[in-house]
Write a structure and sequence with these properties.
83% helix, mainly alpha, 163 residues
């Protein structure tokens, strides 16, 4: 080998660590950027889902609170109409709602249908009363489920003690 080629090989040998280091830096920079953008997208998606979920929970609290009041002050048919009018809201929101809330919502609706049919056919009052009590329990559970999901305590009503 001539001196010329020896010089070229020596120069290449000296440059090899620099080239490998540069290549590693390029690959590391690419992987770092890729990972950070992937993580940022996931965080953005979770924030969007969280914002939507809080909005749905707020609506769920309002709806279940109004239903609870309607069950106490209105007729059972009014309550059934109210819950039926919110079918689209429920099914559109279903993916964001806690499972127990969804189970209770469907159970409340089915039990309201049953009790309204029983009232129309003049069934035994004690059966109707038992189902009404059960519907109220389901409504309370549904409300508590949303409150728990939001880490909110239930509202405590304080009354003046009797003397």
């Amino acid at each position: 080998m001539t001196l010329y080629w020896k010089e070229i090989l020596k120069t290449l040998a000296e440059m090899l660590p620099v080239l490998v280091g540069g290549l590693c830096a390029i690959i590391g920079g690419f992987l770092s950027t890729w990972y950070l953008s992937k993580k940022a997208r996931r965080i953005r998606m979770e924030e969007t889902i969280g914002e939507k979920q809080v909005e749905i929970y707020k609506d769920a609290l309002a709806v279940i609170g109004y239903l609870s009041s309607l069950l106490f002050q209105g007729t059972l048919e009014d309550s059934l109409d109210f819950i039926s009018e919110r079918d689209k809201w429920f099914w559109d929101s279903r993916v964001f709602l806690p499972q127990k809330f969804a189970d209770n919502w469907v159970s409340i609706k089915l039990n309201l249908r049953k009790i309204v049919r029983m009232e129309k056919s003049h069934k035994d009052e004690s059966d109707i009363s038992d189902i009404e009590t059960y519907i109220n329990q389901l409504t309370d559970e549904a409300q508590k489920e949303i409150l728990n999901a939001l880490n909110l305590p239930p509202i405590t009503v304080h009354r003046l003690p009797k003397s």
